[in-house]
C-alpha cells in the first residue's frame, strides 16, 4: 500500500462516516495534510493541519503543557495526546484528530532515532496514543512512513465507527 492510495481510502472513509478531520503534525512537517490535499473533494472532510515543529508552537497553538515537554520531551505519548486534545479544542467543527511527533534523524538521540508517537482522538472520547519504531533509515523515507502510519491508523479507527 502506498501513501496516495491510502490517502484516497481515508478521504472516502471520512465521507462515508461523515467525519471532519484535523491534524497536528510535528515530524511530518505537513506532509499528511499535503498528501490528503491531492485527493479531490477532501476539503469537505479536512479541517486543516497544525504544523507544530517547535516546542513553542506546540505550547502556544495546541496548549501542550511546558511541564509535559520538560518531563517527557516532545517525542512522547503524553505530548502526542496533548496535541490531539489541543487540535480538537482549537477546531470545534472537527470530529476527529490525529497527531504525530518523533525524531526522524539525522542526529537524533539514539533512544529516539526513528521513533514516532501517534495520537488519535474523537470528540467526546479520550485520545489514544501509540509508539512506533520506523523501518526506513533516512529522514525523507521516515517522513513518508510516518505519514502512512498516521493515515493507516485513521483508516483503522474509522473502520470501527
Structure, described:
The chain has a single domain, classed as CinA-like (Maf protein). It has six helices and five strands, in the order αβαβαααβββα. A five-stranded mixed sheet has the order 2-1-3-4-5, sandwiched between helices. Helix 1 runs parallel beside helix 6. The longest helix has 21 residues. The model has no long low-confidence stretch (mean pLDDT 95).
Give the CATH topology: Maf protein
- Kindly provide the name of the CATH class: Alpha Beta
Assembly type: single chain
Shape: globular
Fraction of residues in H or I helices: 40-55%
> Could you give the distance between the termini?
22 Å
- Total individual domains: 1
Uncertain spans: none
What percent strand? 15-25%
The tally of beta strands, per DSSP, is 5
C-alpha-based Rg, rounded: 14 Å
CATH architecture: Alpha-Beta Complex
Strand order of the largest sheet: 2-1-3-4-5
Structural class: alpha/beta
**Mean pLDDT score:** 95
- Series of H and E elements: HEHEHHHEEEH
